Structures are given as structure tokens and as C-alpha cells.
Amino acid sequence: MNERIRKWSLRSKIFIVLLLLTALLSSLSFFFINSLGEMNEVSEVITEDNVPELIWLSHWDSQLMMKEELMEVGIETAFCCAFVQRYEMFREDARTSMEEVYGAPPASLETLEREMEMLDFLILNQVNGLINLNNIESAEAFILTEYETDLNALRAGIEAERQGVTAALDDHQDRFEGIIAEALQLLVLATAGIILIALIISYKISASFSRPVEKMGDQLQFIAAGNYGAAVEESDQLELAPLTRSINLMSFELKRSFDLLVLDKMYREQILDSLPIGIVTSDEERGEISLNKTARDIMGEDFRKTQIPHRQEEAAGTRRFWEVLTSEEIFQNEKVKYEDGNEEYTYLCSQSLLVNESQETIGKVFYFIDITETENLEQQVRKTEKLAVIGELAAGAAHEIRNPLAVIDGFLGLMKQSLKKEDREKFHLSLLLKEIERINGIIEDMLLLAKPGAPRFKMVSLDKIVEEILPLFEETLEMQDISFHVALEPQPLWVDERQIKQIFHNLIRNSSEAMNKKGSISIFGERKKYIYCVEFIDDGPGIKPEEKTRLFDPFRTTKKTGTGLGLPIAEQMMENHSGTIYLHKSSEKGTIFRMEFPLPVEEE
């Protein structure tokens, strides 16, 4: 028999137990029928008699208090402003509102009701008559004597009646509680027995079902933790067998789908991370922002959306990268600047909408590519083309000017030798010869810009070159008020001595003229990782911001007597050495030019 019951389905077991419990509970109804009838009788007495009596007694008591206050106000105001009419209106409104809600007063309170009406009659008849005769003092005396006495007597009667009703209500409630207590005792005993039986049966049924379910739950948690593909052990319980098979199938499908999703996600991420394009995706629905590898390398691995306002504020007025990144506009191929420390980059930026599978806009995609090198190459090409044209023009002009200039210089030299001193001073021959010498220097610079000549490299240390040329400047009259400070780390470099001397000559001459031939010039040099860096520093007034971008343009000068060829020649010679020269810093306190030479290959 037990084996047969064990093979029943859970539904059958529960159904049979419910039938038994229903039969037991139904048998209890016979014991409560009599109790319910008695409770109903007591309840009717309470609701139909005691409760209305208490309500009306409380109402009349509150009415007496309010009428007493109304009398006090009437006495204080000499019964002005239609006192009796207000009293009667108050009386009628109170009675009407009570009867609308609770009906007429119970018959047991007829005596008190008549006494209330007699009290009102004293006001409406006696007091009203005295007021109409303008006998205010008599009306006041009547209220303080007869009316006040009747009111107190009526209040005492109401209180006595209330105590009687309350006592009757308490008796009924005690009886009601006794009936309930008797029924509850029987109910508790019967319920306790039924619950005990139900607990025993439920425990046996649940034990046969909960153990395999708990085991299955543990195995499901193992699967939910990410172990897709794990199988749940099948149970002997009839209802659990199909569920177990479905869970195992689901686990297998989850593993297959998860593997596909992971592979697809990794494949897509590898594609995005392999692109040399920075991609920033903003999902407005989830409030998330994601970056591919290129974007993370540029913007930082720990970049967060909350950092944008701070970085935008730091770059306000100078860089548009953060402005276009936060822009809501859709644009294509816009060149913007981005600064990372001391390095400045140019990016070609675009922005498009991010849509979901329903083609609804859920965010935006901002992507950018580094075109700094391309921009630099384009600028270099334009500059090279410009220099080539200028060089050809300069070379042609220099040759055309040099021939007649040589003739003029020769004749002026003969005149200087043949004329007397007074005539030489009269015709300013010395000044003419000096200016011709200056013109000849300009022609030499033009020819040097057009064709500086192939460098002749040899291993030389820059400190040796500076030691050779510095005394030449220090001994000149123009440089007497300029102090030189040199600290060059000894480092042999492959350089052309003549061109390096020319570069230093041009820089020293520019600094001297900028400082009005008074101040200090410092030359520092040190070896860094792959380069040898030289800083040329003066304490002049600095370079104006609008002139900084055109310093190396040929014939661009801010000096009255300058040719604008010194820095372009220096730049071209540095390019011959595979190095660079650029303005590092300039302010009112001075200017710093920086030169960078490549180290010899065997020493890098």
C-alpha cells in the first residue's frame, strides 16, 4: 500500500489531502450554528439600541455645552445681532443633521428629548419675550438662574442615562465575548488537531518532492553561475522528469548561444580594436559610453563620461576636440585639435547616429583618425614648394644684382682711393661701401637659402664648435653688454661644422637684436633618449603670439633692418642634419629655441 501511494503523482496526493481536510473543517460548522444565532441577537441589541442611544446622548451633551457657550456670548454682547434667531437656527441645524445620519432618537430617550425641547422653549419663549421688551437685565437674570439650573439638571440626567446605556453595552459585549470565547476554544482545539494532521501529511508529501527539487535547485544555481551545458540529474518524481529534460536542453542551448555571442562579441571588438580609428559610442538609453582600443590609448584607459566637462573646461577656447565630442550635431570630416600634455595632434572627426534594431536613435557614434603626420607632411610639402620657388627667385635675383653691384663696389673703391678725405666725407663713401657690403650679405643669405650646399659631416662635439665661434661675438663692440652662459654636455655628433656655426650665428644675432644688444644668452645641451637637445635662451621681450606661427617663413621679419632669412636658413640646415629647430617657449621674460639632433646610430 505504501509503495502504491509513493507512486502517486503530487497532484493526486494534494487532492486527496485537501478532500480530507475539507471534510474535517466542514464538520465544525455544525458546532458554530447555535453560537452564531446567539451572537446575532446580541449584535442586534447593540447596533439597534445601545449604539444609537450613546450617539444621541453624546450629541445632546455636546449641544448643551455649545448652548451654554452661546448663552455666555449672548450675555456678553447684550443679546445683539438676532440672538434668538441664531439660537433657533443652531438648534434646528443640529437636529436635522443628526436625524439625516442616524434617524430619530430611540424611544427609550423620549423623556430626555422632551426635557431638551423644554430647555429650548425657555429661550425661544421667555428669553425672547424679555429681549423683545428690551429688558436685557431680566433676560440675563433668567438665564443665570432658571435656564442654568435646568441645563445642569438635564446634563446630569444625560450623564446618568449614558452610564446606564454604557453598563448595558458592557453586559452585551461581555456576553458577546463569552460566546466568541467558547466558539474559539472549540475552534482552536479542532484546528490544532487538523493542523497537526495536515503538518504530518504535508511533511511526508513535501519530503518526497522537496528533496529532488532542492537538489535540482543547487544544480540550476551551478548552471546560472555561468556553467552553461551542465546537466541536471533526472528524478523519479513523475512531475519533475519533463522539467529535468527541459532544463538540460535549455542548458545545452544556452551554452551554444553563449559561445556564439562571446565569439561574435570578441570578433567585433577585435575588428574595432584593430582599426586605426578612435571610436566613442554613447548609448543614451543605458547612459553608457564605450571606447575602442585606439580611443582608449588616446583618451586614457580609465576615461569616464563624467570627465568630459572637466577636460572641456581645461581646453576652453583653445581646443575643439571636447566640444565636438559632446556636440549633438551630425557632421563629417571636421579637423580639430587635441592636446595631450605637450603634444598637439590633428584629428579628422565625424559623428553619426546610433540606432537600434528598430532604427530608433539611441545615441551617437563619434569617430576620429589621427592626421597629424599627414598635416605635417602637407605643410612640409607646401613649405618646400614655397622655399623652392623663393629659392629660384632669390638665386636669379642674387646673380642679376651681384654683377652690377660688383661694378659699383669697384668704382666706389677707386673713388675712395683717389678722392681727398674731405670729398670722401662729403659723398659719404664709407657709408655707401658699408651699405653695399650689407646688400652683398643679403645676397649671400639668399643664395644660401636657395642652395645651402651639401653638408660635409664629421664627428664633432657641439661644445667645441661653440667654443670656436663665441669669442668672435664677445670681442665685437655690439656684444660687449651681452653675457653668455654655455653648458653643453660633451657628445660627438655627425654634423657639418660650417652649417652649425651658421645656425648659431643666426640665433645669436637675432637674440642680440631682440635684446637691443644688452642682456644674457644661455646655451644648454644634454643627451636624452634618442636625441641630443640644445636650448638657446635669451631674456629679451619675447615674441608676439601672432608672429609665432610665421617665424620660419622666408622674408618674414619684425625688425627694421632684418631680411627674414636667418631662421629659414637655420631650419633648412637642421633638416640637412635630420634634426629640427622650433620655438619652445616665449614670454615677456625671454625666448627659448630648441634644437634636436639625432644621436649616432651606435650610441642610441
UniProtKB/TrEMBL annotation:
Sorted alphabetically, which Gene3D superfamilies does this protein's record hold?
1.10.287.130, 6.10.340.10, Histidine kinase-like ATPase, C-terminal domain, PAS domain
What's a single GO MF annotation on this record?
A: ATP binding
Q: Which UniProt keywords apply?
A: ATP-binding, Cell membrane, Kinase, Membrane, Nucleotide-binding, Phosphoprotein, Transferase, Transmembrane, Transmembrane helix, Two-component regulatory system
Q: Does the keyword Transport apply?
A: no
Pfam families registered for this protein in UniProt: HATPase_c, HisKA
TM helices/strands, residue ranges: 183-203
**Enzyme Commission (EC) number:** 2.7.13.3
Ranges for the Histidine kinase domain?
Answer: 396-601
Q: Where in the cell is it found?
A: Cell membrane
> Which EC class does it fall in?
transferase
Q: What is its main location?
A: membrane
The record describes its membrane topology as: Multi-pass membrane protein
- Alphabetical list of PROSITE patterns matching this protein: HAMP, HIS_KIN
Superkingdom to which the source organism belongs: Bacteria
Question: Known catalysed reaction(s)?
Answer: ATP + protein L-histidine = ADP + protein N-phospho-L-histidine
Could you give one GO CC term from the UniProt record?
A: plasma membrane
Name assigned to this protein:
histidine kinase
Q: Which organism is it from?
A: Alkalicoccus daliensis
Lineage runs: Bacteria, Bacillati, Bacillota, Bacilli, Bacillales
